[in-house]
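User: I'm preparing a small set of examples for a lab meeting where we compare how different chains pack in three dimensions. I only have the primary sequence for this one, and I'd like the structure in token form so I can line it up with the others. Please keep the answer compact; I'll paste it straight into my notes.
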Amino acid sequence: MDDILRILEQDARTPPERIAEMTGRSIEDVREAIVTAERDGIILSYRSQVNWDALGRGDVHAIIEVRVAPQREVGFDSVATRIARFPEVRSMHLVSGDYDLAVQVTGESIYAISNFVASKLAVLDAVQGTVTHFILKRYKEDGSLFESEDDSPRRLPVSM
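Assistant: Understood. Below is the structure token output for the 160-residue chain.
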């Protein structure tokens, strides 16, 4: 089933007939594998990745490093689950290093993200500190390039 999942992960629109050709499986086996993966929570969702910046309507993105005091018997899970439920949070990971959580958020403006940090995130009892990094430009996300090589500026060769 891994081969089917990898194909769908790259392009969720790939029809079962094409996946069957690519993997050498029958169409019915592919369909059954997909239904099973959906039912068992292996496939979590299907989504489109939209480059809103190309339309001039992009949100502001930030990565917030969060230092957390782990709680007895649940560690980081309790506070991480609470943070993950905020609608501003796009992704979140427990990480090694100086901070415990890496939280990617989006908002309509820098002020919206600042307000999220000040009024929702930093006030949580387990949160000991935050550092916010605003994303200035996205080059690649979830495997998709935001600019093709043809769109990128070319440097002129230098000769002496």
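A couple of notes for your slides: The two ends are 56 Å apart (CA to CA). The helical segments are 2-10, 16-23, 27-39, 77-84, 110-121.

User: Perfect, thanks.
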